Amino acid sequence: MHQPVMTGAIVSFLVRDPRGAYLDLTVGAGGHIKALSAGLKSSARLYGLDKDPEAAAVARKETAACAQTVRIEHATYADVRKVVAGFPDTTFDGVLLDLGLSSLQLDDAGRGFSFQSDGPLDMRFNQKADGMTAAEIIQTYSEQELTHIFRSYGEERQAARIAKAIITERDKTPIQTTARLTEIITNVVHPPYQHKACARIFMALRIAVNRELETLQQALPNIFSVVKQGGRLAVIPYHSLEDRIVKRFFQQEAKGCICPPELPVCVCGHTPSALIITRKSVVPDDKEIAENPRARSARLRVLERIAE
Ligand SMILES: C[S@@+](CC[C@H](N)C(=O)[O-])C[C@H]1O[C@@H](n2cnc3c(N)ncnc32)[C@H](O)[C@@H]1O
What we know:
The protein is an alpha/beta fold. It has two domains: 7-104 and 212-305, Rossmann fold; 126-209, Orthogonal Bundle (DNA polymerase, domain 1). 41% of the residues lie in helices and 13% in strands. The chain is built from 13 helices and seven strands. The chain has a seven-stranded mixed beta sheet, with helices on both faces. Helix 2 (31-38) links the parallel strand 1 (21-24) and strand 2 (45-50). It is globular and about 60 Å long. S-adenosylmethionine is lined by residues 2, 4, 25-32, 49-52, 55, 76-78, 98, 100-102, 125, 215.
């Protein structure tokens, strides 16, 4: 089962009103919802979304015993405003965004997220929706595009060599499985870097398939708009590019004057809409990382909505 990260910190940062409304935008296996539930009165309301229909179904089962009313929907957080318009609560005391993928997805070979088991190169969070699979990206993107994805999303130094090998191999036979892609990467990269290179290339492809960075960037303003005054948004990024997007958004919301720097006096009258609660991101302790290796790249950032 998926082990949720930094549950203690999430509950203590997010729960301001024990009778309030809380929204988990990436509900996964429901671990964070269950932790929040334990810290709330029975009159509180809990809501969860997941883009993956299988995750939403698991979360529904996992949270069935919670004392509060829990409502889980299969939806993307990009549609947060539309989705919450149909809920009894439309603004929330606490909103959580735990990015990346869950162990349930990683461990299911049929989803194609892992280089450690063989399966179709899919990697879509929602297999029922349109959108390119990892195999389609591998088969159709140019060498430059593949290099760019591997370098920027995967931070892989041998991005260009791996992309070149993929182009050579795909012209002979289409690359359709995780095992075949892993074989191509390990033929190009020398030990002891093979494992890391496979992990980075697979992560890069997953980010590209699901347009994770674009979705996050575009959705953050809408997500923050459903946080009540005095309520909080907690985000857990696992990747430096995600973290940068979150950090910049927080800084922009917390900023007063937004006049161009060359103006000698402020003419915009802009006031901050938020207070950054975590000046530096919060990281899991060594004990948590030892127990749950997935936690090692997690960072937690928290923003509070203030009166404008
Ligand atoms: C790290 S897991 C969340 C685990 C969860 N916090 C728990 O405690 O079990 C991330 C989840 O986000 C989901 N996800 C990814 N992109 C999404 C999106 N755009 N909208 C909603 N859910 C998304 C994934 O399907 C995955 O289940």
